[in-house]
UniProtKB/TrEMBL annotation, chain A:
<dbReference type="GO" id="GO:0016625">
    <property type="term" value="F:oxidoreductase activity, acting on the aldehyde or oxo group of donors, iron-sulfur protein as acceptor"/>
</dbReference>
<dbReference type="InterPro" id="IPR011766">
    <property type="entry name" value="TPP_enzyme_TPP-bd"/>
</dbReference>
<dbReference type="GO" id="GO:0044281">
    <property type="term" value="P:small molecule metabolic process"/>
</dbReference>
<dbReference type="GO" id="GO:0030976">
    <property type="term" value="F:thiamine pyrophosphate binding"/>
</dbReference>
<protein>
    <submittedName>
        <fullName>2-oxoacid:ferredoxin oxidoreductase subunit beta</fullName>
    </submittedName>
</protein>
<dbReference type="InterPro" id="IPR051457">
    <property type="entry name" value="2-oxoacid:Fd_oxidoreductase"/>
</dbReference>
<dbReference type="InterPro" id="IPR029061">
    <property type="entry name" value="THDP-binding"/>
</dbReference>
<dbReference type="Pfam" id="PF02775">
    <property type="entry name" value="TPP_enzyme_C"/>
</dbReference>
<keyword id="KW-0560">Oxidoreductase</keyword>
From TrEMBL, chain B:
<feature type="domain" description="Pyruvate:ferredoxin oxidoreductase core">
    <location>
        <begin position="281"/>
        <end position="375"/>
    </location>
</feature>
<protein>
    <submittedName>
        <fullName>2-oxoacid:acceptor oxidoreductase subunit alpha</fullName>
    </submittedName>
</protein>
<dbReference type="InterPro" id="IPR029061">
    <property type="entry name" value="THDP-binding"/>
</dbReference>
<dbReference type="InterPro" id="IPR050722">
    <property type="entry name" value="Pyruvate:ferred/Flavod_OxRd"/>
</dbReference>
<dbReference type="GO" id="GO:0006979">
    <property type="term" value="P:response to oxidative stress"/>
</dbReference>
<dbReference type="InterPro" id="IPR002880">
    <property type="entry name" value="Pyrv_Fd/Flavodoxin_OxRdtase_N"/>
</dbReference>
<dbReference type="Pfam" id="PF17147">
    <property type="entry name" value="PFOR_II"/>
</dbReference>
<keyword id="KW-0560">Oxidoreductase</keyword>
<dbReference type="InterPro" id="IPR033412">
    <property type="entry name" value="PFOR_II"/>
</dbReference>
Length: 278, 380
């Protein structure tokens, strides 16, 4: 307990009005905890950490943590993060986004951030729904699921965040959940310590906007669903029937230097060749 | 503005290339953009030049929204940053312009105007984005909009755009047109010391005393680069002095009023115009961009024909230079506003006129320039 208190005092803003904006039963606070514990575990200086968030429930995380925090426009967190990282590569830049943010309105930026492998960690809080606007389906809402804009069940299929980001060329892609907290901590810390574009998908239940409309009786039941349906990738691959099961863990680990590193090397080469002429 | 002239290297440059010279002279070290006619030479030139500039960064982004995002991020990290685009890209950038205005992030956006709405006339000149530059993004916000009429002015006004952005912590839009951007003229390349260069004020107090959006004498709070030890929150939500979201009426009002005041108080510094024979004019032409060049000849010809004509070239479009326009509307019997649109800046002239004199507009939207004789016909 004492350790948690210390972390709270060190990493959460004293001048920010608590409590959190999140609903009872929301998993976002757990992801916030993972983020803080990972930064602490890696011994990063608070001055060197930048949180760039988008719009939505997940976007509000930025205001609570005592780092450099930028709450951007909807879907554009990665573009601002790219600018910050290229302008000052020494900074540890973390883009915190929701599923609608990162994969619907910001989908184009996400695949391009992965393709160019900008040295940014993307933390995607996937709750399968637009929570802040009151429960509309997103590009990760499972087929058949109910929402205010899919009242007869979602007709479209959902993005698999891991597969999409993998295909786009990211250096690292992993998935965790807010039920498997220790594992999530490890995945976030791993992503933060690796070069290039690393994405962590965190499954986090939204009982208020998603659970209630889709047969869950309580937030606890949603956490239980995460416990029952998610399993480590090694065990998942041995399953014969994978229906309804979700693999967790690290899916890709490629050693690709970040764009900022490759760019600096290019400039150094150019300046050496020309003798530093501007 | 200019220091004693030194020996300059000469160059034969496009307006677009001159923008790059101006930007680099002003200390720009970051460009992010997306190719679009007729602005692309700015981007291509930056791609070649910036890797040679110390810490210079050039990025080709996936679209104009991303370009503005990267520019905003770089500016927050302490860089002088810019992008360039044309009509369709300018439309895409609007939300981010609002974000930059709300978060008071300095940046320069060059919009090389082409003809028409939508895809319109990509390779022809237009001036149809004037009102959009002022009001394109949603909500009440201050903005500075500049223009340039020839290649030397492309250098000068780009430097001015950076200076205003840094001085007033605001996005600055520089409106060019296809003619100005694609005209090649001989210019003196800027040398260090040619222009006074401003950089944003950074805080000097200890980080724990720093309030990022506090009221100050000038209304422009100091701005530290991200990573310098001043940790604070930046948001597009209406925020209090500490930068945290607020919806308390008194805090909302204080923020918006300060954002307007920081521009309003410095009208004299910001509103740049050129007077050509307006002192004794009975007829005045009010023009900007490539049209101002045609107007210059038309006014000279009118003088030769015995009409006391004058020209007011607007280098600042917004905040609208009322203090220069209004006295001329009182003293002249006729004001002519030629524009490559259906009448956009003339709306401002008519607003200021309040019935004092006759305001005649010349509007051309067929992708062709307004010729000197077209203007001469209206004034002589």
């Amino acid at each position: 307990m004492a350790e948690i208190t210390q972390l709270i005092h060190k990493y959460l803003r004293h001048n920010k009005k608590f409590p959190l904006v999140f609903c009872p039963g929301c998993g976002h606070g757990i992801v916030l905890g993972s983020l803080v514990r990972s930064v602490h575990a890696l011994g990063l200086n608070k001055d060197d950490v930048v949180i760039v968030a988008g719009i939505g429930c997940s976007g509000r995380i930025a205001a609570y943590v005592d780092f450099n925090t930028v709450h951007t426009t909807h879907g554009r967190a990665l573009t601002v993060a790219t600018g910050i990282k290229m302008a000052n590569p020494k900074l540890t830049v973390i883009a915190v986004m929701g599923d609608g943010d990162a994969f619907s309105i910001g989908g184009n930026h996400l695949i391009h951030a992965a393709r160019r492998n900008i040295g940014v960690t993307a933390l995607v809080l996937n709750n399968f729904i637009y929570g802040m606007t009151g429960g509309q389906c997103s590009s990760t809402t499972p087929e058949g699921a109910y929402s205010h804009t899919s009242p007869m069940g979602q007709l479209e299929s959902a993005f698999d965040i891991v597969e999409l980001t993998k295909a786009a060329g990211a250096a690292g892609v992993s998935r965790g959940t807010v039920y498997h907290v220790k594992e999530l901590d490890a995945l976030v810390a791993d992503a933060l310590s690796r070069p290039g574009f690393n994405l962590v998908e965190a499954l986090t239940p939204c009982f208020t906007q998603y659970g209630r409309g889709n047969g869950f009786k309580s937030a606890v039941e949603m956490f239980r669903w995460l416990k029952d349906s998610c399993l480590p990738i090694e065990r998942f691959e041995k399953l014969e029937d994978r229906t309804g099961k979700i693999p967790l863990g690290s899916f890709v680990r490629r050693d690709i230097p970040g764009l900022e590193t490759r760019y600096a090397a290019m400039c150094e080469g150019v300046r050496r060749k020309k003798g530093g002429a501007a | 503005m200019t220091a004693p002239r030194k020996k300059h290297r000469e160059a034969f440059l496009l307006g677009n290339e001159a923008v790059v010279e101006g930007a680099l002279a002003a200390g720009c070290s970051f460009y992010a953009g997306y190719p679009i006619t007729p602005s692309t030479e700015i981007m291509e030139c930056m791609a070649k030049r910036l890797p040679h500039v110390p810490d210079g960064v050039f990025l080709q982004m996936e679209d104009e929204i991303a370009s503005m995002g990267a520019v905003i991020g770089a500016s927050l990290a302490g860089r002088k940053a810019m992008t360039a685009t044309s009509g369709p890209g300018f439309s895409l950038m609007q939300e981010q312009i609002g974000y930059a205005a709300m978060t008071e992030t300095p940046l320069v956006l060059v919009n090389v105007m082409r003809g028409g709405a939508s895809t319109g006339l990509p390779t022809s000149p237009g001036q149809g984005d004037v009102q959009q530059a002022r009001w394109g993004t949603h909500g009440d916000h201050p903005i500075i909009v500049l223009s340039a009429a020839d290649v030397p002015e492309c250098v000068e006004m780009t430097v001015t755009a950076f200076n205003f952005a840094e001085k007033y912590r605001t996005p600055v839009i520089l409106l060019l047109d296809e003619i100005t951007a694609h005209t090649r003229e001989k210019i003196d390349l800027p040398e260090p010391g040619d222009f006074e260069i401003f950089s944003r004020l950074t805080p000097t107090m200890p980080p724990e005393w720093y309030k990022p959006f506090e009221e100050t004498m000038r209304g422009v709070p100091p701005m530290p680069p991200i990573g310098s030890g001043y940790r604070f929150h930046v948001t597009g939500l209406t925020h209090d002095a500490l930068g945290f979201p607020t919806s308390r009426p008194e805090e909302v009002r204080a923020l918006t009023e300060r954002q307007f005041r920081k521009i309003d108080r410095f009208f004299e510094d910001i509103q740049l115009v050129e007077h050509v024979g307006t002192a004794d004019a009975e007829v005045v032409v009010i023009a900007y961009g490539c049209v101002a060049r045609s107007a210059r000849l038309a006014v000279r010809q009118a003088r030769e024909a015995g009409v006391r004509a004058g020209l007011l070239v607007l280098k600042t479009l917004y905040p609208f230079p009322r203090r220069h326009v209004e006295p001329l509307l009182r003293s002249c019997r006729l004001a002519v506003v030629p524009e490559l649109n259906m009448g956009q800046l003339s709306r401002e002239v008519k607003r200021v006129n309040e019935g004092h004199t006759v305001v005649r507009t010349i509007n051309r939207i067929d992708g062709q320039i307004i010729t000197p004789s077209q203007i001469l016909k209206e004034i002589a």
